[in-house]
Amino acid sequence: MNKYFILILASCLLLSCNNDEKNPETQTINIPEPTDIPAIEYSVVSSFPHDTTSYTQGLLIHDKKVFESTGSPSNLKQTKSVFGILDMTTGKINVKAELDKDTYFGEGICILKNKLYQLTWLNQTGFIYDAKTFKKIGDFKFTNKEGWGLTTDGTNLIMSDGTDKLSYIDPLTLKIVKTITTSYNNLNELEFIRGYIYANIYQKNFIVKIDPSNGNVTGILDLSSLVYKAQLKSKKAEVLNGIAFDSISNKILVTGKLWPVVYQINFAN
C-alpha cells in the first residue's frame, strides 16, 4: 500500500479520535491485566433476563428487591438515565425516577438509612430520594471531577470517580471525610460485600476485591466467560458493569451494559 496513503489515513483517524465526545463510556482505556493478584473462584447459580436497552450504571439489592440505575450515552438514542426496581422475570426496570438526559447522565446508586442516593457523571451533583416513596428530597454537590459508582459500608457512602481513588462521604454532611487509593484506575460500579469493596474496572472483564483499610487489591474475579456468553446472546452487549449483594440471602448478581442477562453467582470471600 502506498506509504502516503497510509499517512493520510492515520491522520484522518487521529482527527476523528480527537473530535470524539469526551465520554468514558465509549472510549477505549488501556489497563494492565492483573498478574499477581489471587484469583477468586466462582460458580454460576442461575440467570435472569435483562433489558438490552439498559445501560447499566448501578446495581443493588434492598429488601429483597433488585434496583438498577442506567445512563444515557448520546450515541445510543434508546437509552435513558433512570433508576427503579428490576423485574427479574422480564428484565425490565419499573422506573421510579428519570433524569433529563439533555442535562444529566445517570450513574451509580445506593440505599442507606431509608434514603436512595444517585450520582450523575459530569455535573458534580448527586440526588437524594426517599427510599420508600422515591420522591426526591434533596441534592448534594461533590468536588470530584466525575461521579461513577456508589455503594455504602453501612456508615458512609463510598464513591468512585473513574480514577484509582474511592471517596467516603458522610451522609449527614454530604462531605468527603476520607479517601483511599487503590492500584487500579477506572474504578467503576461498586458493591460492599462481607467487609470488602468490590469494584468493576471499566472496560475490563474482571472485578477487583479491595481492602477498605488500606486500598490494597486482595483478589480478582475474572468474569470473561460470562462476558463472552452475554455477547453470544446479544450483539448489543457491551462491557461488564454491575454487581449486587444481598447480605441476608448471600445472593450475588452481576450484569453489564446492554446485556441480555443477569447472572447469579457464588464465590467465597
Describe the protein's architecture and organization.
The chain has 269 residues and is mainly beta. Helices cover 10% and strands 44% of the residues. The chain has helices spanning 3-19, 224-233, and strands at residues 42-49, 56-62, 65-70, 82-86, 93-98, 106-112, 115-120, 125-130, 136-141, 150-152, 157-160, 165-169, 176-181, 187-193, 196-201, 206-210, 217-222, 240-246, 251-256, 261-267. The strands form 5 sheets. It has a 4-stranded antiparallel sheet, covered by helices on one side. Strands 2-3-4-5 form a 4-stranded antiparallel sheet, with no helix packed on it. Strands 6-7-8-9 form a 4-stranded antiparallel sheet, with no helix packed on it. Strand 10 and strand 11 (157-160) form a beta hairpin. It starts with a helix and ends with a strand. The relative contact order is 0.17.
